[in-house]
Amino acid sequence: MEEYPNKQATENLDDPPNSRLFVVTSRSITEDELREGFSAFGDIQGVWVVKDKQTKESKGICYVKFAKSSQACLAMEEMHGKVLMEGTKPCKVFIAQSRSSTRHRDVEDEELTRIFVMIPKTFSEEDLKDTFKEYGDIEYCVIIKNKFTGESKGLGYVRYYKPSQAAIAIENCDKTYRAILAEPRTKATVTEDYSAGAPRGDYMGGGDSMNQYAFPMADPGNYQVMDYRSNDFTRCLMMSTRAALTQEQIFALFDIIPGMEYCELQRDAYGMSKGHALIRYSNLGSAVYAKEKLNGFEYPPGNRLVVNFVDDGDDRSSPVGRMAMQFVATQMMSAVWNGPSTSQVMKPPGFSPISPMSRVQTDVNLPPLKKLAPPDSKTKERLFVVFSPSPLPPDVLEDVFCRFGSLIEVHLVPGRKVGYMKYADKQCADEAMAALHGRVVNGVKMKVMLADPPREESHKRPRTY
Q1: Of 95, 130, 232, 387, which one has the fewest beta carbons inside 10 Å?
Q2: Can you tell me whether residue 348 is helix, strand or coil?
Q3: In which domain, by residue range, is 140 found?
Q4: pTM greater than 0.90
Q5: Are residues 114 and 83 part of one domain?
Q6: pLDDT, tens digit, for every residue of 108-138?
Q7: Segments of 161-310 assigned E as strands
Q8: Number of CB atoms found within 10 A of residue 417's CB
C-alpha cells in the first residue's frame, strides 16, 4: 500500500496534532480533485491516495494534511457527507489518528472539543467563559478546585460544541494559558475520591506539581453508596441511567429541587457518557427530597432512573451531628410521603420536559407519523446512520424515520453504533437525511448519510454450516 511517497514526508505528519484527515471517497477521485475540494479550508501540505499494491488503482481511501489542526477540523465538519465531484458518492471525513497511536480507530469528534487551560486563581467560571468565548460557542466551563478549601487551583476546562472551535482557541489564545486538548485519565488510574469542588476530578500529583496535566475521571466504583435505611443520608447523590441523557437534561431534572449546587455527567476516557451523574445539594433536606422523588422516576418514559446517596466527605461522627441529620431526614421523608404526588411535583412553571411526553425528544420539527412501506417493497435508497454515544432503540428509530414516508425497515448492526434505514422512495430518504443529519434525538447525536450501494454478489460457493 503506497500511503506516503517518501520517508521525509512522514516526519511532520502529526505536527501539529490532529491536522491530518482520513477520507473515504470514490475510487475515481484523483489527488488533484481532492486538493481542489479541500483547499478552501486552509494550507494543504500534502495529499495521499492509498493504492493497491498490485493494480496501483485507488482504494477510495485518502489522507489530506493541513498546516493547522483548526483547518483540518473545519474541513472535516464541512466536507463530511458532501460530494466532491458530480456522480461520485458522498465522502466520509475524519481526523486521522496519530502515526504512533496503537488505537485501531480514528479520532472521535467528542475527543476534540474539550481543552485544558492554566488560569489565574482569581478567575471565576464566568471569567473563564468570557476569555474563551471569542473562539466559538461554549458548552460549559469548569474550574478545578481544592477539595478541602474550595479554592481554585488555577486550572480549568472549556468544552466547545465543535472541534474547530477548540482548535482555534488552542492556536490563538494567550500562550500563558498553555491550552491543550484535555486528556482524561482512564478508569484504571483513578485513585482518589471524587471532589465536589473539582467537577472533572481532583488534580493529581500533590502540591502544585503538574503531573502531565492528567486528571482522573469519576467513576461509580469510587463512591461509597450509602444505605438510607440505616440513616446514612448525605448531600451527594449518584444517578444511573440506561438511556443516553445529556448533561443539560440531567441538570434540568435535578434543578427542580432547590439547593442544587453541582451536577456532572460522568464520561469515559473518550468523552462518552458512562450512564452515571453526580449531584450535590447545599443542604441535606434537598438531597433527601430529590432522592425520594426521582429514584425510580421514568425519564424519558420507559427509562427508570436509579438514585442513591454517596459519601460526601462530611464528618458525621459526633452524636449531635447524627441527631441533626436524622431529624432533617425525618422531616423531609414525612414531607415526601405526605406531600403532593410525584406527578404534581414534576410540573413546575415553565418546565415541560419532565411532564408526560412522547417517547421521542428532539429539537427537530418532525412531520406527523406515517405508515411503513410494505416489507416486500423494493429498496430505492438506504441511509447510513452513526450514533453517539450509543444507538437508539429500533422502535424509536422507526418512529423518527417513518415520518418522512416510505420507510421499509430499520436495521441496527449488532455490536456497533451504526444502522441502516431502507426507503422505498429516494426523495423521502433525502428529506430524512436533510432533516436529521447532525441532530440529537433522546440525547443521542446522529450522523445521517447516504449508504454505499450494496456490494455485488460473490461467486464463491456458499457456506454449508
Answers
A1: 130
A2: coil
A3: 110-181
A4: no
A5: no
A6: 666 788 899 999 999 999 999 999 999 999 9
A7: 180-181, 236-240, 260-267, 273-281, 306-310
A8: 15
